[in-house]
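Chapter summary example.
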Amino acid sequence: MCISLGQQVVTCTLTIANDGSIVESTTCERKKGGYGTKMMDAIASELPDGAWEMLALPDGQVRVTLSWHLL
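The structure predicted for these 71 residues follows.
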């Protein structure tokens, strides 16, 4: 697992990715609207210009990225 937090000027980005050995690439193909998705929507909505995305990569890795602007 890899967790990183970075800042470029006024934009912060938090990225969490697995190494592809635990979660299969089909994870992101599930129907949206589960508890985790709702939680990420709620977190992003509370941050200034908050947004998030989840990507399933061909190697089986799943990467979730949350970004927001500093005030």
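To summarize the output: Residues 2-69 form one domain.
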